[in-house]
Design goal:
Structural class of chain A: mainly alpha
Shape of chain B: globular
Order of helices and strands of chain A: HHHEEHHHHHHHHH
CATH superfamily of the largest domain in chain A: MetI-like
Helix content of chain B: 25-40%
Helix content of chain A: 55-70%
Number of strands of chain B: 21
Oligomer: heterodimer
Radius of gyration of chain B: 27 Å
Distance between the termini of chain A: 7 Å
Strand order of the largest sheet of chain A: 1-2
Strand content of chain A: under 5%
CATH class of the largest domain in chain A: Mainly Alpha
Largest interface: A-B, 88 and 88 residues
Largest sheet of chain B: 7 strands, mixed
Structural class of chain B: alpha+beta
Number of strands of chain A: 2
Number of domains of chain A: 2
Strand order of the largest sheet of chain B: 7-8-9-1-10-19-11
CATH topology of the largest domain in chain A: MetI-like fold
């Protein structure tokens, strides 16, 4: 197993290298970061030329990639535009842990930009994942145990209604019902946007209250897929001989369901969760935007739209590494859950 | 059992994350500190509720250093915590803030040749930490703009200066290389505290990475920066030392809400007291919710630019009669009435609703029959019966490009139908802003002539009319890849007039020049106004005494009141 892990990690190095090249090249076609600098006016030609020179954006793409990868502290930059490079570079490069500084939040280190948002995303997406798993387990197991019952049909129908609705619709609809209209009708209402009420302060209670609608919106549309997975996995396991044997032995029903059936049915679920976990880091672009949740999804889209290559590359490489790591963890958990699986 | 452990682990992570998110250094003091002493005979009274006004910004500012940003939301936020040497009231008149009076020839503030401008600073101006604001801060700000070590957003207009001097602590003398007409609207938009940033510059060699850029705890505006949490909010508390009076509101809480529909919902629910960039279509629903809607003109007029490069431009557009025909066939009145709900009107020139507007000009009327006559006269006729006019084998098919803003897309669709009525076929194209506004060197579609007509609105330095967009020297090319005259218009008369106005310090003379410029562009249809594009502000029912200016929206924010 140790050899397998080491081999997988070694294989990941060229993979990440290729991913970084592809992403870097793609980012060069995402627009001109100096076009308007986020403003309402076109950047003056003199400023555009000066900034391109100072920020190294006038360099050929392979040089920009090289600076991103290994830094530019081994060379000098022409900051004053006299044609003579005179200022030593300061960047150390990704290989030495320096992801550079943001073009948008000029001078702010990329890792700081990402770290400002990561806890918020983990909070929102972690809670959502938990709600989805718990809710889907309840729905999926109930549907499997009471197959074709009225409640099975009802719950499945509701789950599929959620699945078929776009997230922005669910989010805005819930906001208008539970925030705007409930307040108008004099009922207890939920906040519309943000993480807390400025008149109260950022307390755990306020944060939890402000999470209700985004978590609900995200969970609602994912219940269907997860619950169907669990339902079909449980149905398959419940028809196995060893379950019949366990029942025949007179084992209590909860033991049969939770210990014998669910454990064996959880293999495909672990696969799905393992694939989803890396994307918890990426956040939920639409939901974060609508509920003004300061997470990674919004960060990504805000910086992509302004061609902020260092920050976007930082986010994408973080996700790429997470995908590789979680894939590996999933494989390990797989072997742990099912002793028949060996990676030798 | 393993599932249970998994859930316990996940639940534990959520609780820890919740606590981490809530316990990061963002605690909001929601009540003022208790009074130091209280007479024992007075019965304890409830302290007055803290007045916190919530603004909703659809874009988060990129930096708070005024030198490092072009963002509109960042610029207007700076007026809350930083200071301009003078700002503008709701009639666009300058209002001294740091100076005793506006410099003029009459008071000796402007030299007879227009090259030297002298500022006399007020005696009572101080930074929020109590240190006096002096002419040294002005000189330092100038030096930081011009230093090649700093990647500031723009060196304009400081690069027009020969030098900035401080003969004493209360006097700033600016010497221009040549008379510069736009000085009033462009200089001293924000000031840097030399006593905070000079040590940083001396140590680091740049202020690019200064902590002050993101947390300017020392400022000179009516409010003082308190906190900025990325993607979430920023807080500013009343500046007790502000020389124009302490604001009546205790705190400004700016919440970043990027989604337009969410902004509207938050304003309707009372979760915001002020918002801007409201879509026209949302105005009725907000007014129903008792939210006051205010139109403020800040110089933006939406219009069509025609690509008139003598070699690369479409041959039809190079004929002024075709451009006039387009102006007559494009019903901008119905656009304003139907798409913009009658809340605005067709723009005539790029300087509508500015002090430089020519009141004698009228918008091109909607007259498709006259448009057809002009096209016939120009030799563009439908000879092959396909419904599209042609000449010498060239079809009158034009590409109309703009950004992805929804109202612009809607206008494109209407224009396509209307111009088809006179035999002009429009092909529509859209690009995200950072692609659309890309330079010639970056392959931007406007700059490289990929569009025959392109639509947007821009202002360089409202309320001043200054622009370089029409200079022959700004036509982009391989030799000049950053040129901003994307329409490639090189009209010698127009070029001379623009060069002349840039040096006319006398406002009346400059006004006459601008009226000539406006008429020339109008008659030759180098630019066709589509609609006047004011900023739409939404003011919640709790906010009182709000007056908004196009250039400096928060000029009277110290007088704003918040009813509970």
């Amino acid at each position: 197993m140790i050899r397998y892990i080491i081999r997988r990690l070694l294989q990941a190095i060229p993979l990440l290298f290729i991913i970084s090249i592809v992403l870097f090249v793609l980012m060069q076609n995402m627009g001109d970061p100096l076009a308007t600098l986020g403003g309402r006016q076109v950047t003056r030609s003199e400023d555009r030329q000066r900034l391109a020179r100072q920020l190294g954006l006038d360099q050929p793409i392979y040089m920009q990639y090289l600076y991103w990868l290994i830094g530019n502290d081994w060379t000098k930059i022409d900051m004053d535009g006299d044609g003579v490079p005179e200022t030593p570079g300061r960047r150390k490069g990704v290989l030495r842990g320096d992801f550079g500084t943001s073009l948008v939040n000029r001078g702010k280190p990329v890792l700081e930009v990402i770290w400002d948002r990561l806890p918020n995303t983990l909070l929102l997406m972690g809670t959502t994942e938990l709600v989805i798993i718990v809710g889907s387990l309840i729905i999926g197991m109930y549907s499997a145990l009471r197959q074709y019952s009225f409640l099975d049909h009802l719950v499945t129908a509701i789950a599929f209604i959620g699945y078929s609705m776009p997230i922005f619709f669910v989010a805005l609809l819930s906001m208008y019902i539970f925030s705007v209209n409930f307040k108008r009708w004099g009922l207890p209402y939920l906040p519309t946007v943000g993480m807390f009420d400025p008149n109260v302060g950022k307390t755990p209670g306020q944060v939890a209250l402000h999470m209700v609608l985004p978590v609900f919106s995200l969970s609602f549309i994912y219940f269907a897929a997860y619950s169907r997975y669990i339902r079909s996995a449980m149905l398959e396991v419940l028809s196995q001989d060893y379950i019949r044997t366990a029942r025949a032995k007179g084992l209590p029903r909860p033991t049969v369901i939770f210990i014998h059936a669910l454990k064996n049915a959880s293999l495909p679920i672990v696969t799905v969760v393992g694939l989803d976990l890396p994307f918890l880091l990426a956040g939920a672009i639409v939901t974060e935007r609508i509920f003004a949740w300061p997470g990674m999804g919004r960060l990504f889209i805000d910086h992509v739209s302004r061609g902020d290559t260092p920050v976007v590359m930082g986010i994408l490489m973080m996700i790429a590494v997470a995908v590789v790591v979680f894939q590996l963890i999933t494989d390990i958990v797989y072997a742990w859950l099912d002793p028949r699986i060996r990676y030798e | 059992m393993k599932q249970s452990r998994f859930f316990i682990l996940m639940a534990g992570m959520v609780v820890i994350a919740l606590l981490l998110a809530a316990c990061r250094p963002t605690a909001t003091p929601t009540t003022p500190p208790p009074a130091a002493t209280q007479p024992p005979t007075v019965a304890p009274t409830q302290p007055p509720a803290r007045k916190v006004a919530t603004f909703i910004w659809t874009q988060e500012f990129d930096t708070l250093n005024p030198l490092y940003t072009n963002m509109w939301f960042s610029a207007i936020t700076q007026q809350i915590w930083n200071c301009w040497a003078w700002d503008y009231d709701d009639q666009n008149n300058p209002r001294p803030v740091l100076v005793k009076e506006m410099p003029s020839e009459a008071n000796g503030g402007i030299s007879p040749d227009g090259r030297v401008i002298t500022l006399k600073l007020r005696d009572d101006i101080v930074w929020s930490d109590g240190k006096p604001i002096t002419s040294d801060d002005f000189v330092f700000t100038y030096e930081m703009v011009m230093s090649p070590k700093n990647t500031v957003a723009s060196t304009f207009p400081y690069d027009k200066l020969e030098k900035v001097e401080a003969p004493d602590a209360r006097t700033v003398v600016m010497t221009f290389k040549e008379p510069f007409a736009a000085w009033q609207a462009t200089l001293w938009h924000g000031l840097l505290p030399a006593h905070i940033l000079r040590p940083v510059f001396e140590k680091e060699g740049t202020i690019d990475t200064a902590e002050w850029n993101r947390a300017p705890t020392v400022g000179c505006g009516p409010f003082v920066f308190k906190e900025w949490e990325s993607g979430s909010f920023a807080r500013f508390v009343a500046n007790e030392k502000y020389w124009l009076g302490r604001p009546k509101i205790d705190e400004i809480f700016i919440r970043f809400v990027p989604d337009d529909a969410s902004q509207v919902a938050a304003l309707k629910a009372g979760d915001g007291d002020l918002g801007t960039f409201i879509a026209y279509s949302d105005i009725p629903t907000l007014e129903e919710a008792n939210v006051q809607m205010v139109k403020v003109f800040s110089g933006y007029n939406e219009g069509w630019y025609f690509y008139l490069h003598p070699e690369k431009g479409h041959p039809a557009l190079l004929d002024v009669r075709v451009r006039q025909a387009i102006a007559l066939a494009f019903d901008r009145f119905s656009i304003c009435k139907d798409l913009l709900l009658g809340l605005t009107q067709p723009a005539i020139t790029q300087w509508d609703n500015t002090p430089w507007e020519d009141p004698t000009l009228e918008p091109w009327p909607y007259d498709p029959e006259r448009a057809k006559q002009l096209l016939d006269e120009a030799g563009w006729k439908d000879t092959n019966g396909d419904g599209v006019r042609d000449k010498d084998g060239v079809e009158l098919v034009l590409t109309l490009g703009t950004t992805t803003r929804q109202i612009r897309r809607d206008v494109q669709a209407v224009a396509q139908q209307q111009l088809a009525q006179v035999g002009i076929k429009l092909e529509l194209a859209n690009a995200d802003s950072d692609i659309f506004f890309g330079s010639y060197g970056e392959g931007g579609p406007c700059a490289t002539g990929q569009y025959d007509i392109f639509e947007y609105s821009t202002v360089v330095s409202f309320p001043d009319p200054e622009t370089a967009d029409w200079l022959c020297s700004q036509i982009p090319s391989d030799e000049n890849p950053a040129g901003v005259n994307w329409q490639a218009v090189c009209d010698e008369e127009l070029d001379a007039l623009f060069q002349l106005q840039a040096t006319q310090v006398d406002p009346n003379e400059r006004m006459q020049t601008f009226h000539k410029i406006s008429r020339l562009i109008y008659e030759k249809v180098y630019w066709l106004g589509v609609w006047e594009d004011p900023d739409i502000w939404a003011i919640g029912p709790r906010l009182k005494n709000v007056r908004l200016s196009g250039a400096t929206p928060f000029f009277n924010i110290v007088e704003w009141e918040l009813s509970q």
